[in-house]
Design brief:
This protein is an alpha/beta fold. It is built from 17 helices and 15 strands. It is 42% helix and 16% strand. Pyridoxal-5'-phosphate binds next to α6. It comes from Acidiphilium rubrum.
Length: 461
């Protein structure tokens, strides 16, 4: 057998080697390898290139993370310089490095409210796991160990560690060993799907009050925290009505329950403000961050901790038995600092807000009248297109997910990455996307959606 590293690209069957040896995350391997796995070889700006020379518009910014776009030399330089000076040192041994201290200082200065302390990890999942451990440790330290239950939401996504998956509302993950005791779930603020005849504002309050009902059912003395993404990303870009988050915050405070904002997707400009919590007017007790923190150039995540929880952890808990070898990795922190320089100097949060408005207008102009389009929604540069069986009644397709998968495949064959969540097409391009690139995105999406509609009409489905 040839080893991949010893032969030229074209001589080697990368797909066969992938099928033989590589287990992909969140994939059904049989169906994955029936098609041709695309090998992505390089990227620049908002475009990816594959090994046969296709130029693919990345409407997902990788996995919602490449905020500043691909190919930014500043981050490469920051990583190289830090690797040369100090490629690694831990933060366990009464030691720290300058990049980690600078990043902690900078993030806490940027963050809303009194999130004045930062803990670092590598992935969003680890950040969530950490935040949940901190929330429970907070109540244990305060002498209220019965306050353990974490309330999350249906379609919530908080990562793939067992705690994160248990907090999330993905039942398929629960079925594969990630259901744990002391986790509860309530309905998401998904007006399009669940709002019925209610106005979005009425429904926002209704959905928030499900949390209060759940707290009463379990007993506030047993609930540690509520965790939610300001906008639920992986669950289908569920954007809550304006009434939702303020009511959630009121409920958490009234029942003395910690509020955790999982900003792994929303953080760093995605929603048109630096943090989703600002977009929705809340000040959480804990905030989880990842993805856009380094624009995905290197793994890094953070938990920002408000004064109330930090005071207890710092002054009363003693040792918090939790941490990772790479907590505060100096190279990742140096890359994050360079990434924040770009986010701030190019005003990418404000740009996301302005571009989002333009992008939605373009999508509505191109597609708004089509029978298959139920809703086009977005906040900043995170958005969704609901495909529907009946736009008047907002009826879902009979077998959920088939039309979405078909549309996703049409997008991919048109060299556009747009994901399907059930029959909801979701997008979150790099925040640097230009007007011309948005036109390109809309053209490709229109072609794919019209092809999907034609398939449905010709009863391929
Ligand atoms: N939390 C949210 C809101 C996410 O969207 C994700 C990933 O998509 C995670 C947590 C998990 O992050 P990671 O995949 O980096 O572990």
């Amino acid at each position: 057998d040839h080893l991949a590293s010893t032969v030229s690209d074209s001589d080697f069957n990368w797909q066969a080697a992938d099928a033989a040896h590589h287990l992909h995350p969140f994939s059904d391997h049989k169906s994955l390898h029936q098609g041709r796995v695309r090998i992505i070889t390089s990227a620049e700006g908002v475009y990816l290139t594959d090994d046969v020379g296709n130029r693919i518009l990345d409407g997902m910014a990788g996995l919602w993370c490449v905020a500043i776009g691909y190919g930014r030399q500043e981050l490469v330089d920051a990583a190289a310089a830090q690797m040369k000076t100090l490629p690694f040192y831990n933060t366990f041994f009464k030691t720290a490095t300058r990049p980690v201290i600078s990043l902690a200082e900078r993030l806490t200065a940027m963050a809303p409210g009194d999130l004045n302390h930062a803990f670092f990890a590598c992935s969003g999942s680890e950040a969530v796991d950490t935040a949940l451990r901190m929330a429970r440790t907070f109540w244990i330290t305060k002498g209220q160990p019965s306050k353990r239950v974490i309330i999350g939401r249906e379609f919530g996504y908080h990562g793939s560690t067992t705690l994160g998956a248990a907090a999330g509302g993905m039942v398929d993950m629960h079925r594969q060993g990630a259901a744990l005791p002391d986790f509860a779930h309530v309905m998401p603020p998904y007006w399009y799907g669940y709002g019925g005849q209610m106005s979005p504002e009425e429904f926002g309050l209704f959905a928030a009050r499900q949390v209060e009902d759940k707290i009463r059912e379990i007993g506030a003395e047993n609930v540690a925290a509520f965790i939610g993404e300001p906008i639920q990303g992986a669950g289908g870009v569920i954007i809550p009505p304006e009434t939702y988050w303020p009511e959630i915050q009121r409920i958490c405070r009234a029942h003395d329950i910690l509020l955790i904002a999982d900003e792994v997707i929303c953080g760093f400009g995605r929603t048109g403000r630096m943090f989703g919590s600002e977009t929705f007017g809340i000040t959480p007790d804990l905030m989880t961050l990842a993805k856009g923190i380094t624009s995905g150039y290197i793994p890094l995540s953070a938990v920002l901790v408000g004064d109330r929880v930090a005071d207890v952890l710092i002054n009363d808990t003693g040792e918090f038995y939790h941490g990772f070898t790479y907590s505060g990795h100096p190279v990742a922190c140096a890359v994050a600092l360079a990434n924040l320089d770009i986010l701030e100097s190019e005003h990418l949060a404000a740009r996301a807000e302005a571009s989002g408005i333009k992008l939605r207008a373009k999508l509505i102009a191109a597609l708004g009248d089509q029978p298959i389009i139920g809703e086009i929604r977005g906040t900043g540069l995170i958005g969704a297109i609901e495909l529907t069986a009946d736009r008047r009644t907002r009826r879902f397709f009979e077998k959920r997910g088939r039309v979405g998968a078909l549309c996703r495949d049409h997008c991919f064959s048109n060299n556009l990455v747009m994901r399907a969540v059930r029959d909801t097409m979701v997008f979150s391009p790099p925040l640097t996307i230009t007007d011309a690139e948005m036109d390109d995105l809309v053209d490709r999406a229109t072609t794919a959606i019209m092809a999907t509609q034609a398939d449905i009409r010709s009863e391929i489905l």
